[in-house]
């Protein structure tokens, strides 16, 4: 059975101290300005957060066995202070680094990983399109081989870490032909920032995650060398499925951080807020809601840790992909819905103050909803779980 070691707890404390010192004092201003704190990323890199599950050969921590659990702890602790900063790490590793680490050639790894692992650069993963979200197989972006180059045309939507000053590369999925049975052949191609024909659209105006960098991308006869193919031709669909399994657990960890913060905020506020001459926590209508919140946090955390542990066990060859996929979907579904509920409870406990931006619950309320959408909606998770149970589809 899995359990956190003293090393895990020491690492958690290290990240929490970093988040309290480097993020907490500035996050309200960053959120108000919708500004991405580029200078924070190298500091996270110095702490080793981008290279926890990467080999030392490229500048990682060398925690190939057990590294994913450490990553989830880091995401949780950053997300407890701010969800945007948490998703910057989650996407930077899960969507930016891991595809290169898992499927890249030696040359691709040597070119991109050292800067990415050190936090000197960020990478993105371009999967979602305006008309291809949950139905990723409906990708319309196309890439054709011409004179030794891939020529890419199409558009991507909602791509994290794709337009920062330090973004070095975005991996995009594209149709590169058809399979023998007539289905789209989908491949993954790496497009370095600044490539001619690669257009980063203006940043979105979002409900939440104001600090996180999110853009649409357009490719207009964008040419990259043939050797920028990531992995094997036609394997892009399989690659992104693995990427999503990891990402769902990471988002679950982000949700745990959100719910944990709401538990802390409501417990403190309900103990201090006086109404009718006594703390509002005396009222069972308040204390029971906070008690329910504590149960949700505990359950979400255990589901997330179990999924992270199973993922580490799979990487070591001791667990199956099917086990991880099911655990990831269960953790992501429960944790993200719990986080949304937690922010609703917190806002209600805070009353009118919960509607004021000077209190952090308002920011977390705005940030939480996307957790049920990104990396596979709640509906998709239920579909995955049903398939894992063997139910007819």
From TrEMBL:
The keyword Nucleotide-binding does not apply. The keyword ATP-binding does not apply. SUPFAM superfamilies: Acyl-CoA dehydrogenase C-terminal domain-like, Acyl-CoA dehydrogenase NM domain-like. GO terms for molecular function: oxidoreductase activity. Its EC number is 1.-.-.-. Residues 125-222 form the Acyl-CoA oxidase/dehydrogenase middle domain. InterPro entries: Acyl-CoA_DH_CS, Acyl-CoA_Oxase/DH_mid-dom, Acyl-CoA_Oxase/DH_mid-dom_sf, AcylCo_DH-like_C, AcylCo_DH/oxidase_C, AcylCoA_DH/ox_N, AcylCoA_DH/ox_N_sf, AcylCoA_DH/oxidase_NM_dom_sf. Belongs to the acyl-CoA dehydrogenase family. This is Acyl-CoA dehydrogenase family protein. It comes from Ornithinimicrobium kibberense.
